[in-house]
Amino acid sequence: MINPGEYKLEKSELRRNIIKQRQSLSEAEWKQKSQEICQNLAKSDLYIKAKTVLGYFSFRREPDLSYLFLDNKSDNDKNWGFPRCVDKSLIWHYWKSEDELITGKYGIQEPNPSSPIIKPENVDLILVPCVACDYQNYRLGYGGGYYDRFLSSPEWESIPTIGIVFNFAYLTRVPVEEWDKNLDSICTENG
Fold it and tell me: 7: pLDDT confidence band, cut at 50, 70 and 90?
C-alpha cells in the first residue's frame, strides 16, 4: 500500500506503484469502486447540470465510467464525447452506445474517426482519467502529456474538470511541474 506521504518518489516510480496497486484490485472490487464513483458523480452539481460530458474508456483498471454512459435509461439528456489520440493531441468525438469503437495506438478504445467531432463551446464537463491526484487537485497522468496539452489549450481551459481516481490514489501531494494545471475537483468512491 502506498503511503500518501511518499510524494517525494519520482513521477515514474509513483506512477508505476499506483498502477500496480490499481491492477491488483479484484474484478469485483474494481467494479464496486467504479460504481461508487459513478454514483458520486451522478449526484454532483457539475454533472447534473452538464448536457455534454467528455469521458474516457477505462484502460489498465482505471475507474470504469461505463455505468454512466451505457446505462443511459435515466440519463438520456446527456451527450457523451470520447477522445482519439492523434499525433500528440486528443480529438474529441460524440459517441453513443450503439456506435462503433476501434482500438487506438495505445490499445485504448476510441470512437470511429468518422464520428462527429465535438467543439469546445458545446462541452459542459470534462471527466479526466488520472493515475493519482492530490489534495490541491493536481493530477499525475501516464506521462504522455496528452491531457496536459489538452487542458492547457485556451479553447478548453475554462470548461469544468473532475479528476477520476480511486481513493487509494488520492494523495497528499503528487510531483508537479510548471506546466501542470490543477483540476476543478476530484471524485473518488468516497466522495
Answer: very low
Q: Which amino acid is at 93?
A: H
Mean pLDDT value across the chain: 89
Specify the pTM.
Answer: 0.90
Query: Is residue 3 in a domain?
Result: no
What is the rounded CA–CA span in Å between residue 60 and residue 19? 8
- Residues 171/7, Cβ–Cβ less than 8 Å: yes
How many domains does one find in the chain? 1
pLDDT (tens digit, 9 = 90+) per residue, 92-111? Answer: 999 988 888 889 888 889 99
Question: HSE of 110 in the Cβ direction (CA atoms, 13 Å)?
Answer: 19
Question: At 94, phi and psi to the nearest 5?
Answer: -65, 145
As a whole number of angstroms, the distance between CA 25 and CA 15 comes to 16
CATH label of the domain that carries residue 51: 3.40.50.10420
Give residue 81's domain range. Answer: 11-187
Closest CA to 141 of 55, 6, 35, 18: 18
CA distances to 13, 89, 147 from 124, in Å? 34, 20, 17
Is residue 1 included in any domain, yes or no? Answer: no
